[in-house]
């Protein structure tokens, strides 16, 4: 069986992650998992309190199972924190899959214009974002490091977590902590 590849889509809203993820889905015959496409149909709103993390955990569990069985996956979450990306790189390695980051940077003005256009044309597929929220999100976003983009081995998980599987299970409550050490 061929090794699967997991592609982690990284960037802020409006960066073009989902457009790129759809292209990768078609080009690679991959399973694409985009939480924004699930939130409104399941919960009737795009940001119901506490439910996004639960949904993302189940989608990640599905992605890991698919990758373990040799299917390429595209994880279209945004993944703003370095720890989220590190945990997923570690987890995909643990199930025997390759993993790479697709980072789509963009400047503030372009981002704001795209967000406004998206809401104007497809309001049923998105949610409102204020200018203040956008600035706050940009401040919280951690750009991928050169090491991440080049696929350097992940560092050890932060304490008190035994490994990145335990960290991920705490971050995404519906993702089980069942993954051992990454495969070589």
Automatic annotation (TrEMBL):
InterPro entries: P-loop_NTPase. The lineage of its organism: Bacteria, Bacillati, Actinomycetota, Actinomycetes, Kineosporiales. The keyword Membrane does not apply. GO terms for molecular function: kinase activity. It comes from Kineococcus radiotolerans. Keywords: Kinase, Transferase. This is Putative kinase. Pfam families: AAA_33. Residues 144-163 are annotated as: Disordered.
């Amino acid at each position: 069986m061929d090794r699967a590849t997991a592609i982690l889509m990284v960037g802020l809203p409006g960066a073009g992650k989902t457009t790129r993820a759809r292209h990768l889905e078609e080009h690679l015959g991959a399973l694409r998992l985009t939480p924004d496409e699930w939130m409104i149909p399941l919960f009737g709103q795009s940001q119901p309190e506490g439910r996004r993390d639960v949904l993302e955990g189940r989608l990640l569990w599905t992605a890991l199972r698919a990758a373990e069985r040799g299917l390429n996956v595209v994880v279209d979450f945004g993944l703003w924190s370095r720890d989220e990306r590190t945990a997923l790189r570690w987890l995909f390695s643990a199930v025997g899959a390759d993993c790479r980051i697709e980072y789509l940077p963009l400047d503030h003005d372009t981002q704001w214009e795209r967000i406004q256009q998206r809401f104007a044309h497809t309001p049923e597929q998105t949610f409102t974002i204020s200018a203040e929220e956008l600035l706050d999100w940009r401040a919280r976003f951690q750009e991928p490091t050169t090491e991440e983009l080049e696929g350097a081995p992940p560092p050890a998980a932060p304490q008190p977590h035994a490994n990145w599987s335990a960290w991920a299970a705490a971050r995404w409550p519906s993702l089980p902590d069942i993954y051992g050490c990454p495969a070589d």
